[in-house]
Amino acid sequence: MSGILSTLANCLPSREKPYCGGPSVRIGVLGGGQLGRMMIQDAIDLDARVEVMDPSADAPCAHLTQRFVQGNLLDAKAVEAFGTGLDCITIEIEGVSVPGLEALERKGVRVVPKPAHIALIQDKGLQKQFFQKHNIATAPFALQMANGDRSALGYPVVQKLRRGGYDGKGVAVLKDASSSHFEGKDAHCVLEKKIDIEKELSVVVCRRSAYDTKCYEPTECVFDPRGNVVQLIVSPASITPEQKATCNALAKQVVDAMDYIGILAVEMFLEKGTGKIMVNELAPRAHNSGHHTIEQCATSQFGQLLRVVLDLPLGDVSPTRAKAAAMVNILGSPSVAKGSKPLYRGLREALGKPGVYPHLYGKSTVSPFRKMGHITMVGDDRDEVVELAKEVLASVACEAAP
Amino acid sequence: MSGILSTLANCLPSREKPYCGGPSVRIGVLGGGQLGRMMIQDAIDLDARVEVMDPSADAPCAHLTQRFVQGNLLDAKAVEAFGTGLDCITIEIEGVSVPGLEALERKGVRVVPKPAHIALIQDKGLQKQFFQKHNIATAPFALQMANGDRSALGYPVVQKLRRGGYDGKGVAVLKDASSSHFEGKDAHCVLEKKIDIEKELSVVVCRRSAYDTKCYEPTECVFDPRGNVVQLIVSPASITPEQKATCNALAKQVVDAMDYIGILAVEMFLEKGTGKIMVNELAPRAHNSGHHTIEQCATSQFGQLLRVVLDLPLGDVSPTRAKAAAMVNILGSPSVAKGSKPLYRGLREALGKPGVYPHLYGKSTVSPFRKMGHITMVGDDRDEVVELAKEVLASVACEAAP
């Protein structure tokens, strides 16, 4: 029996495992950014003690926990030292030491998600091979060693670094053989057929066991071409009921094939012309495309992850709180000097509008395109909500305080 | 200009006062219990830095803040020392040093609510005189010095200590001259005509200025006779639209007469037979009868209080998230030994039911009838929600861990 289960079970012998909370349940989180911060907001309600490790001393979670450890998340020894004695540990970023987590698992710490799944997702090449092996629809691809011939799939082709990319970084579209591309010793990559994308969709799925798996409704992502970062997420996606069912079936297929435990964001493409839906990539954690669940759904993605971590029944994923939601990121303005003190322009006015919910991440400095927060808009009418989101997006900015 | 306003205005000269958040906005809270804790959950979203003072080293807020000060809330010097340098300060308990807050006000700290209003509410005698002076409907009463003649209003009569009572403590119903009553040097009290109560109602009202005041819909309170503590709060109250309007008008009359700034719970009686609605008493803070606003309303009472404190526009109070809500407290079981480690029985099962939202307060020990948390139930049908609340109330218990 893992640490946490035995802790819970030891409280009192009973069929229903009474819940103790407080110092009896110690959850560790690798990463102390906004995702950990929003999880802490929900953990407070369950009196679960969340302890945090992050490389930055003033990470957004640093002051919201009884134990904050500054450390390198990719250092196996540091991760093992942080997690020893915890009941369970989870992540809010995929760039963490898998050997460190494996060592903790051997010590009886419940690790969510499983270290092998984090390793799989850390490598876009392994992800693609996994999709292929399990007949999960995905764009045609070829794996490529550093400095290899990039013409395998013809042009245009998308070159993705196998490791370390995020938010559009580590992705290049090559129009022809002369296009600038990643190279050098770290440039092991996936070459992927360039899909003619009609929509980018995402399904956040939570799986506690084969018998307790829940998919949120698919959302639709709109990217900002400036920073190649998601700028507008809309729920529900404007797709047919059949397409929704396909998205959720695909997400379910992925987690079942992996025997995944935890929360997973499954990003998908809807192909123009063919109408084919295929998996783009996975994120083994709470995700930007699930932030709207806080205001729209009966259970938020953060509450859901906590339930998996604590082995509590998953919550209702229905959009009971609002028929439609849209989410915009608050990014650092392109012109701010890196490391400036942030100033949120337009927030006061946004707060005066019904159905507008800002979430600032508590970052002490702003840089161009840095994610400083997000704002969720909810309402009964999808078009009105999208309109409101665009208005808010145009009027709220994170600039540098003078 | 008060500290916070100048801080905000100094960030950048502009009509709209851009919001800085983070260390630029330092809010102090006197009291580190569940109300402060739930306010911190909302403050995280506004990146407002909340600092806390509480007499107990392991208060529910102790580990959720950058600065926690252990101290006596009734000690003027301690309160002044805690609050010096803050932009604003608020309370989550009315038993605080008013002279300490007045000293802070003189130093330019924005104090919400005003010290004079806290002083008024700390004394039930002054409260009653205030109602009388401003023609605010309330039960007939007489003030009484310690050991005075209690027969002024005949019998039965309710004796309430003027100071220090809470959750039914400091209140006695005297059937006749021989009934046991409060006496001795601290027994200055209010004698109040015993109202034949049809319903106990409550309106939480938030007032940022004369031009920005919002009342939540009246709720209905059901008391548990064992501990004389509210056990079930239902929103909306089952009263007529005219009665609702009377309740809200009464709450508005109270805050306008006081020129109150902050959040105020106005507890009321609906008298049997006459149908008359009268004010019972006031609480100058977030209140048990407003907890359901977290899950039912567009803006929670905690978010609302923060908006007043930060001088941001008040949020929408409509029940946009659910048509009906009911709230039950999780109290320490009558049989637990005082100071036991808590164990929450039935919570796991409750979490498996849609529409059930537990909030544990993170108290490290349980005692009989101690408020350990609350659970809110929401849904479309009021009767079904009340039924679910009763089910949950019967099945969830806070006992002692073995």
- CATH homologous superfamily heading of the largest domain in chain A: ATP-grasp fold, B domain
Instruction: List the quaternary state of the chains.
Output: homodimer
Distance between the termini of chain A: 55 Å
Query: What characteristic shape of chain A results from the CA principal axes?
Result: globular
The helix content of chain A is 25-40%
> What is the CATH level 1 assignment of the largest domain in chain A?
Alpha Beta
Structure description:
- The structure is a homodimer of 402-residue chains.
- Chain A folds into 3 domains: 3-112, Rossmann fold (3-Layer(aba) Sandwich), CATH 3.40.50.20; 140-193, Dna Ligase, domain 1, CATH 3.30.1490; 197-400, 2-Layer Sandwich (D-amino Acid Aminotransferase, Chain A, domain 1), CATH 3.30.470.
- Chain A is built from 11 helices and 20 strands.
- Chain A has helices at 3-11, 34-45, 76-83, 98-106, 115-122, 124-133, 241-258, 293-296, 301-309, 347-351, 382-395; strands at residues 22-30, 48-54, 68-70, 88-91, 110-112, 141-144, 157-161, 171-174, 189-193, 197-209, 212-215, 219-224, 229-235, 262-271, 277-283, 324-331, 342-345, 356-360, 371-379, 397-400.
- In chain A, the strands form 4 sheets. In chain A, strands 10, 11, 12, 13, 14, 15, 16, 18 and 19 form a 9-stranded antiparallel beta sheet that branches. The first copy, chain A, has a 5-stranded parallel beta sheet with strand order 3-2-1-4-5, sandwiched between helices. Chain A has a 4-stranded antiparallel beta sheet with strand order 6-9-7-8, with helices on one face.
- In chain A, strand 1 (22-30), helix 2 (34-45) and strand 2 (48-54) form a beta-alpha-beta unit.
- In chain A, helix 2 crosses helix 9 (301-309).
- The relative contact order of chain A is 0.11.
- The interface between A and B is large, with 58 and 58 residues.
